[in-house]
Amino acid sequence: MGVPGQVLPPSSSLPPVRALTTAVVCEEEVVTALHNLRSLYCPLRLPQSVHKPRQPSFSVPAIDSGYASEDEDENPFDTLAADTAISNLRLDEFERTIATRWLTTLIACAESIEFETEDAREKALNYAAFILSSFSDSIEDPEEEALTRIFDFATNHGDVINVRLNDAPLSGTDHTDVGMQSWGASIVMSDMLCADPQRFGISTLNAGSTVVELGAGTGLVGLTLGKLLPTLGLRNSRIIATDYHSAVLSNLEVNIGNNFPSDPVPPVKAHLLDWSNPKIPDSIPVSVRILVAADVVYAKEHAVWLRDCAGRLLGPDGTFWLMVTVREHGKFQGIASTVEAAFVEKKPATHDGRELRILEKERVEKRRGIGRGDEVCYFLYRIGWTSM
C-alpha cells in the first residue's frame, strides 16, 4: 500500500472491487484503504463517529496535513511539490470515480466481509460514508454525483435498444443505495442478444413468457431484454432480475424506473434470490424457458450453487445462457474453469432421469474499449437438460 505517510492514487492502491463483492479482502486491507482515501480527500476532517466515547475498532491516524510527515529538516520546496501533486491527484476525476465506486461497493458488500467485530464493521461503514459525503460537499449539483452509463444496442430488425444505468452512488445522503458496475460480459451478452435474438431461442417464447436473470447487478442484460422483447412482438413478457445484496437490488429498482419511467408495471422486476438456498421463493416462477447470467462466477462454490439454482428454475425444454469471463492473471485466474468442473460433478436430475449439462461452448473475443484489462475473452455456454 506504499510507505507510511504517502498518499497513493486510488487506481493503484485500492483492493479490486470484485475482492469486495466476493469477500476475499481482509479487514486490514479495507482499513488501510480507507485511511489512504481519508488522507487524500478529507485530510483535515474526521467522521463524527470517532468522537464517540467508546474506542473505535480501528485506529484513526493523527490529524496533520494527511499527505506526508514534515520534520524540521524537510526541504520546503519538496513539501510544496508534494502538496501540489496531492492537490492535482485530489482533483483528478478519473481517480475520484474509482474511489467513489470502491466506497459504494464496500458499503453494499460490508455484511459479507469478515471483520473482527460488528463494531469494526460499523466503523468501516461510517468511515466510507464520511469520505463519500466529502465528495458531495464540493458538488453544486447533487445529481452530478451519480455516474450514469448509456448503452445503445442495434437489433437485427432495425431497432436500437437504449439502456441507461447508474453505476455509482445515487444523489442524497443514503450511500447504501448503490449498484455494482456493469462488467464487460454483460455488455457483450446484451449486444449479442440484440444482434441475434433467434440464436438465443427468444423466438420460441410466447407473449407473457418469463425470463429470469441470475446475478443481475445493475440489470443491464435484463433491462436489455425488457426493451428487446416488445420489438419482437412479445408484449406482456416479464423479466425477473435477481441478485443477493439488498443494496444492489435497490439500485436495480432505480435503474428499472429510469428505463421505464412511464410504465406503471415495468416489464422488469427486481427480486432477491440466494443461489445457496435450495428453496426458490414462490414469487419466482419455476420451469422457465430462458435463464441468463453474465460474469457471475468468482469462486468454485459459485459455479456449483449457480448450477443447482438453474436446475431448480429451468423448465424441461428450457435453456440457460451463461457468459463467463476468462482471466489469466490476478485473484480470479482459472475461476472460469470451475463452471465446466461443476458440470462434471453431480448434476441436477429431472424426474424423468435427464440431467443438466453444458450443450455448447463458444469462445467470444474481448472487444476493444469494453471490459477490464485482466479480461482475456469470454465463454458463452448453452446449458440444458439432456439424457444421461
Automatic annotation (TrEMBL):
The GO molecular function terms of this record are: S-adenosylmethionine-dependent methyltransferase activity
What are the boundaries of the signal sequence?
none
Q: Which Gene3D superfamilies match?
A: Vaccinia Virus protein VP39
Keyword Magnesium present in the record's keywords: the answer is no
Q: Please tell me whether the keyword Transferase is annotated for this protein.
A: yes
InterPro entries to which the protein is assigned, alphabetical: Methyltransf_16 (IPR019410), SAM-dependent_MTases_sf (IPR029063)
- Name the Gene Ontology biological process terms: methylation
* Keywords linked to the UniProt accession: Methyltransferase, Transferase
Q: What is the protein name given in its UniProt record?
A: Putative methyltransferase-domain-containing protein
